[in-house]
Specification:
The structure holds two protein chains of two kinds.
Chain A lengths: L3 H9 L7 H17 L10 H4 L2 H25 L3 H7 L36 E6 L9 E9 L4 E9 L2 E9 L5 E3 L4 H4 L2 E9 L2 E8 L8 E7 L5 E4 L2 H6 L3 E9 L2 E10 L4 E9 L5 E3 L11 E8 L2 E7 L19 E6 L6 E3 L9 E9 L2 E8 L2 E8 L3 E4 L10 E10 L2 E8 L16 E6 L7 E2 L14 E9 L2 E8 L2 E9 L3
Antiparallel strand pairs in A: 1-28, 2-3, 3-4, 4-5, 6-7, 7-8, 8-9, 10-11, 11-12, 12-13, 14-15, 15-16, 16-17, 18-19, 19-20, 20-21, 22-23, 23-24, 24-25, 26-27, 27-28
Chain B lengths: L9 H21 L6 H13 L10 H20 L3 H13 L8 H7 L2 H11 L5 H8 L3 H15 L10
Classes of the chains: A mainly beta, B mainly alpha.
């Protein structure tokens, strides 16, 4: 017999055998760290961190020492951003041209690496489209956006009292948006994760949760014009998209490549998964005979230098805290490469190691990749180029303080931006309330190797709203179109280089 | 700003001890499925104590509850695209030890933390909405609406029985 009180009581009683004394010890330890680290961001230890506290403290001490020297050096020689952006032109860090055009299958030569003190960080001006888009009634989130040369198409989800549904928005200019009419038979009970121009016109991927647990499966939608969508979850498709999350889809391979994960309901372990399609209607699951995808999750995939790169996390299970990445576990970020979207190799890199780390999104410009993600709830950025391999941007100074994750990145030539949202840490207000989750923007002038946090902008928050999240970026002619949500409504931000 | 370590006096711990049972239960209700309730309580305590002493607050329990709610709500929204997946999986995993355990958890986890907290405080703890509003730092109207909205969201999945 189901009853509300019983279920609520079960929730209230979950958790480990924590006593008041245990809590005292944990809090005292954290307060000691806070006291020792005033002026720098200190996140509280979570269950995922406790098992490796000693190692982390030692590592942080070393990194902080190195990073402090670097940061101090930059602080001394780099003028404040406000001065830089109002008086100096944007940086002109150009790629060194190769004397012989490189064949498409080889790596281009990377631009020279600048010393931190040589970097002049660019600044952007931001505008937020505030008005709620007609046709929305619940809590809307734009999660992904593309521009195919003719129009913008954004996809996401809407949660209402009646349940969740996928949602699609379109725009010709990125400023005026309209919501595609809801059709419960197409969008009901689902959420869209990503969209791409391909197949008959557009293809979106996501998950159907409308059936009882155990029957949830990946869903593919197709559309000729972006306005009328068809849902493709026939029995044949369901057989290759079983209990799955499909997070990213791109044009590539035989036509389309999608990545995500598949959950084994018997072992409660998740495995990364790749699907390919020639037309968006019929899909094949890429086999994994060598276990390359085992105990992992793929969050994003990009085409790169004639092949493909995917990133994600090496988690075995998909929980933080009481399950999955718990004490003593190593849950590193992960990356894979493939020449053809069918044969994949997992990349080992010391830069991926962390207590619970995930690279969740990527952007590419020439030979450079920028990947955003998090490390135990703190924003993190990795870069890749053929010369330097994978490099992680150090967590030094205030760069990543008060931030949960980098949710999207975009490269515009040598310049790059990353977006995410601010956490509550250190944002207490005098009246006891928080300024929750302002959006955060970081900028880079050297292909993501070095970053600066952009000055707070009124477009990043509204005091009364509970949260502003930026979730995806598309660059059109040097202008950044960012989608996400503010409060209960979908939101679009437009960013332009201040001195372009 | 005072040194956070100075706020670990006996008086502070006495307040924590008194509030611990009720705060821990509420943390279990508020915490999203992928967040350890103990971590939520710990984080809220550290956050408050790093800024002020509990003994300086008129209502330390309300302050801590509000802090936990803000932290949980922020985490809930931030998870965004992963939230539905995680809540379904967590609910399923919870069912493993006891096959008869109600699958209501999946639906409960999909509610925003504030709605879960309001429902718990009203349905299980038996508080009136004016008391809940004070405990969670919201208006009485908002507490009522939260409970009403939570029930509506659950109506298709729950047999409410005598819960009204």
């Amino acid at each position: 017999m189901r009853d509300l009180r019983g279920s609520l009581t079960m929730l209230a009683e979950r958790g480990g055998p924590l006593t008041s004394g245990d809590l005292r010890e944990r809090v005292a330890f954290d307060l000691a760290e806070v006291s020792a680290s005033r002026g720098a961001h200190v996140a509280p230890r979570t269950a995922a961190m406790r098992g490796t506290t000693v190692a982390i403290v030692a590592f942080v001490a070393i990194v902080a020492t190195i990073g402090l020297v670097t940061w101090l050096g930059r602080s001394i020689v780099t003028p404040p951003a406000s001065v830089v952006t109002t008086s100096l032109p944007p940086p002109t860090l150009t790629t060194v041209p190769s004397t012989t055009p490189a064949p498409t299958t080889t790596i281009q030569q990377a631009a020279p690496v600048l010393e931190p003190e040589e970097i002049v960080y660019p600044e952007l001006t931001w505008t937020r489209i505030d008005s709620a888009i007609p046709g929305s009634e619940g809590i809307q989130t734009m999660g992904s956006v593309i521009h195919d040369g003719a129009r913008f198409v954004a996809v996401g989800s809407e949660e209402t009292d009646a349940g969740g549904r996928a949602a699609v928005w379109i725009s010709s200019d990125g400023i005026e948006w309209s919501r595609v009419d809801n059709d419960e038979s197409v969008f009901g009970g689902t959420g869209m994760e990503d969209v791409v121009a391909g197949g008959p016109g557009y293809v979106a991927v996501g998950t159907d949760w409308s059936e009882p647990f155990g029957s949830a499966h990946g869903v593919v939608w197709t559309s000729v014009d972006g306005e009328i969508w068809n849902r493709s979850d026939s029995d044949d498709l369901e057989s290759v998209l079983p209990f799955s999350g499909v997070y990213s889809v791109i044009a590539g391979g035989p036509g389309l490549v999608a990545v995500g994960w598949d959950f084994d309901t018997e072992t409660f372990e998740g495995n990364a998964a790749v699907w390919t399609s020639s037309d968006g209607f019929s899909w094949d699951r890429v086999p994994d005979p060598d276990g390359t995808f085992s105990r992992a999750l793929m969050s994003d995939v990009v085409a790169y230098e004639g092949g493909y790169v995917a990133v994600g996390s090496g988690r075995g299970q998909l929980f933080v805290g009481t399950r999955g990445c718990t004490d003593g576990d190593i849950c590193p970020a992960a990356a894979w490469t493939s020449p053809d979207a069918v044969t994949w190799t997992r990349i080992e890199s010391s830069t991926f190691v962390g207590g619970f780390t995930e690279a969740s999104n990527m952007s590419v410009s020439g030979p450079n990749i920028v990947a955003g993600g998090f490390d135990v709830g703190v924003a993190s950025i990795w870069t890749y180029d053929p010369d330097g391999g994978w490099v992680r941007v150090p967590h030094t100074g205030p760069l990543f303080g008060e931030s949960f994750a980098v949710d999207a990145t975009a490269l515009d030539g040598d310049r790059a931006i990353a977006v995410g949202s601010r956490g509550n840490w250190e944002t207490f207000q005098d009246d006891g309330t928080f300024v929750e989750g302002d959006a955060i923007v970081w900028v880079s002038a050297d292909r993501g190797l070095h970053w600066e946090r952009a000055d707070w902008d009124k477009a990043f928050t509204t005091y009364m709203d509970p949260m502003a999240v930026m979730l995806d970026i598309v660059v059109v002619d040097g202008t950044f179109f960012v989608v996400g949500a503010v409060g209960d409504d979908e939101a679009v931000w437009i960013g332009q280089w201040a001195n372009n | 700003m005072d040194d956070a370590l100075s706020r670990t006096s006996h008086d502070e711990w006495r307040i924590v001890d008194e509030l611990f049972p009720s705060l821990r239960r509420l943390a279990g209700v508020m915490a999203p499925s992928d967040m350890d309730p103990d971590d939520l309580l710990q984080e809220a305590l550290v956050k408050v104590l790093s800024h002020c002493a509990l003994s300086d607050l008129d209502h330390p329990g309300a302050y801590l509850r509000r802090t936990m709610l803000n932290l949980a709500a922020s985490h809930y929204r931030h998870m965004g695209r992963r939230r539905i997946t995680l809540t379904r999986l967590a609910a399923s995993a919870e069912q493993v030890p006891d096959a008869s355990y109600p699958s209501d958890l999946a639906e409960l986890y999909r509610l925003p933390p504030r709605e879960r907290a309001v429902l718990y405080l009203a349905e299980v703890e038996g508080y009136h909405f004016d008391e809940i509003a004070e405990m969670l730092g919201c208006s009485q109207s908002a507490a009522r609406k939260g409970a009403s909205r939570g029930r509506r969201r659950l109506r298709l999945a729950l047999t409410t029985g005598d819960t009204g």
